[in-house]
Amino acid sequence: MTTTETAPLTAEVEADRLAGEIERLGHRLADVREGIGHVIFGQQQVVDNTLITLLAGGHTLLVGVPGLAKTRLVETLGTVFGLEDRRVQCTPDLMPADILGSEVLEEGESGRRSFRFIKGPVFAQLLMADEINRASPRTQSALLQAMQEHRVTVAGSPHELPNPFHVLATQNPLEQEGTYPLPEAQLDRFFVEIQVGYPDLEAERQMLLATTGARSSEARQVMSPSELMAAQKLVRRLPVGEQVVEAILGIVRSGRPTETAREEVKAQVAWGPGPRASQALMLAVRARAVLDGRFAPSMDDVLAMAGPVLRHRMALSFAARADGVVIDDIIGLLCEPHL
Prior knowledge:
Blueprint: H1 3-37, H2 44-56, E1 60-63, H3 70-80, E2 85-89, H4 96-100, E3 101-107, E4 113-119, E5 126-130, H5 137-140, H6 144-149, E6 151-154, E7 157-160, E8 166-171, H7 184-189, E9 192-195, H8 201-211, H9 225-237, H10 242-253, H11 263-268, E10 269-271, H12 275-291, H13 299-310, E11 315-316, H14 318-322, H15 327-335
Helix pairs in contact: 2-12, 10-12, 10-13, 12-13, 13-15
């Protein structure tokens, strides 16, 4: 058999193998969804977008008023995936060392003194930063290197973080007193911003009956951390059609207030999404397809994930805010040509 005859055969075998892996992962993720559903009632889109973030290897910013199970969701994810999780309650007096860890001077039996590094809560597979906007900018910046490079540097020495590593932060959009807005560099490290709204009537009824009785449902482990990392590698192998690639580039690039941008964008957008937004949207549509057990992402995936990916990577001008424009209006405008 010649090389030209074996090449298509190899590609076909690889495609079949990939399809089989995606199908098996889809069944596993269905079990994950079911396990989360025993604890989190309603909020299916919030759960799915959080799972998409984990499959893509990213970090999540959950924005919503108190009492919407944001903290409970993070704890449940840690249990379902068997991840070592830690929690940091962000306050104005929280210091970077409270997150990263610090070096302490110790004296051995021989009388010799040496420094020993004591790891902080960031050395976990799943770190929950509760009310992250209550931490000072100095403390917020302690997570920049960790979220991008999966390592931290303390006293000039680098320390690798465990794999996988995810930060799930919560933010209360109502209270502004005693809070610090997240800088653009920090926001850009988050894969998506997920708006957590109120549950619908039936979900709240189910939650009311399930959580006020003598027993409440507990989450159980469904997948292992190694399985999650294998799923993350599989997501990156998913083929993406040219139409989807062009749509991603078109939506992201049209959100930048450049000379060639639409007049509405130039007038209403102060700064737009950078290249990291394109990367995030590409991974997001792949992860969404895998979550649904599909073998390739579609335009529906692009339109569904544009909001969570771009929402925190753009800023409105002062005039737009004064006119009552919200960032989701602009994202809807960017998506119109691809509907």
